[in-house]
Task: structure prediction
Amino acid sequence: MDPLRFAKFEFEETEVDGVVYRLPVIDLKKEVFQAPKRKQKNNKEDDVSRYKFAQQFYRNVEDEEEQNCQPSYQVNVGDGMEEIVDAANDLEEQVDFEADKLASNDKEDQSSLYKETLKKESPLFVPKVKKKTQFDTEARQFTHCLYLPVTSKQLSKKLVDFQYKVESFDGGKSLYDQWFVEESTFHFTLLLLPLTNKEAVSKAAEVIQALQPELEKFLADKDFVLTVRGVGHFTMPGQADESSVLYAEIAENKHYDTLVDLTDMIIKRMLLENVIYENELGFIEYDEQLDKYFVKFHLSLINTSLFKIEGEYIGFQGKPIVEKFKNENFGTFKPKTISLSRRKAVDGAHASSLARVTIPTDVEITIQ
Result:
């Protein structure tokens, strides 16, 4: 009787260099292998001898099959023998590997030999390659900003007046002049993008320009006028009592909803074209029921990242400011451009645009 007839193998999956292999768990101490019992204290010589015994045993099995003209794959599948005998054939390679491994003291050679053994083709060891998805990609550093620049002089003046009001309210307790955002850079952020090379910048520009027909149709029958009212703040990481940014908000009304739909359309197109990945939208909320992305639109008025104090970033007391001016009304403005610029080069003047798309609704898209 074939000693492997009633043998049962368990299997486990092992990942090597991004490839998952299904390997049998072989216990040479089982009676089916007829290997001598281990001594309480083993040494390399005993282990090598044990592996050589098992190696010879399986070679004898192969010789017996050849004499009977019974190839290893010609077995009764109904008895579940095909997989078992194939496992025995492949185990010979594993035995050779283990014997060489014990005889070698070079760790690099051992690792190389192990990988080479696992890569050998076998009906049992069919590799399952993991498909790389966007969730396997590490989040990249944001380099560019898609935003609505403030082009209304009247709104800009009210925002600057408010900055002086906040400075007076603080009384010099926690605010520094270097933190106040310049009037020429006032803008509402729509989306941050990780464009780390020229090819990525060109692709993002092409995607935005390709949206022209859709934006034209979407905004053709809408009066796109935004109301700026109220203030909010972002806290310092790990410091709930310290603020890093003070910003103006957009009032939620039908015009706000238009901006939400417009931004959602842009984000989905950026995702579709792999300009940005889902795991890089950490600050954007997604509503599954509505199938829509919601951005926290904000216009920064104070930003502590603009200047370090004694070599480090510190925060300010933002809660009292928000409580005092939470209903502050700054007025309205009609956006004229949607711009893409480097985060550190948002200048509001748009003097050096790489591309410009004019839409009949007086809304322009510029890429810098």
